[in-house]
Predict the structure.
Amino acid sequence: MKKIKGTIGILGCGNMGGAVAAGLTKRGVASRRSILFFDKDRKKTSRIKKELGIRSTSSIAELLRKCGIVLLAVKPQHLGDVTAELAEGLKRKHLLISLLAGVSIGNLRRRLGKACRVVRVMPNLGLLAGKGITAVTGGNSKDRKLADLVFSSCGRTVSLAEKHFNLVTVLSGSGPAYFFYLMELLDKFGVKKGLSLNIARLLSSETALGAAELVLRSGEDPEALRRRVTSKGGTTEAAFSVLGAKSFRVLFNRALERALKRAKDLGGK
Ligand SMILES: NC(=O)c1ccc[n+]([C@@H]2O[C@H](COP(=O)([O-])OP(=O)(O)OC[C@H]3O[C@@H](n4cnc5c(N)ncnc54)[C@H](OP(=O)(O)O)[C@@H]3O)[C@@H](O)[C@H]2O)c1
């Protein structure tokens, strides 16, 4: 993997910021010395320094002074708390990579001024396992390549127009929860019918992994693969005689439409 030149600053080192820092060092995309972070949580700061061996700064201003690439990884509701310092410290040399769900590049520019370049990304929870999928938009192609490099260290990336970001939020941002729910239902059924939770979970999680891997490797349609395991008169067919009923599809589509509306309401546009 290519290496990033210069110093990367992470503002807000929680789930996402921490996962990126871990991915960068693990994959050798950045050395420990070239990553700095600032988090307002002191306990978290000392834990991360110990666990990841990276250094922290004592303020946002110091982070901006020392880093050319800055990952903005606080929660959207905390953007207001960091706006003034960011607007003050961001210069032309900076590339700001924003992870903030529902906050458009236009909105960020209005708040922060027009000095720096901005790339917006939408990662997902898979980042924590090095298996995230991150959509990337904005900036020039060099900036997007840099963001690609950062997020490829903990999964895969895809370049997309910003107009699709609400949809990305619904599909892959919230997506892990849909699959967790299905696994939760499989686990509960397994336990109800006599398995230990450990075994039920092993069966459900390895099955989810295998199914996803098969779709990615074979390039086949999930529908075609589903039809292939559904033999006539078998158990899968019996399950789909219930699941295939229109109501489940309708319900799930309604859920996705509701989530999309919520993403639009939260992010504007
Ligand atoms: N989690 C996901 O699946 C996901 C998916 C896509 C996008 N995102 C986006 O990624 C971003 C980070 O999410 P997350 O789940 O990593 O959140 P998180 O775990 O809460 O991490 C944010 C960190 O920033 C810290 N922080 C808050 N205000 C700060 C300030 N003024 N200065 C410095 N640090 C501050 C928080 O400290 P405290 O804990 O003390 O508040 C926390 O450690 C969000 O914008 C979110 O929209 C998340």
User: Anything to note?
Assistant: The domain at 8-164 is CATH 3.40.50.720 (Rossmann fold). Residues 127 and 154 are 5 Å apart (CA to CA). The chain has twelve helices and eight strands. The first strand starts at residue 8 and ends at 11.
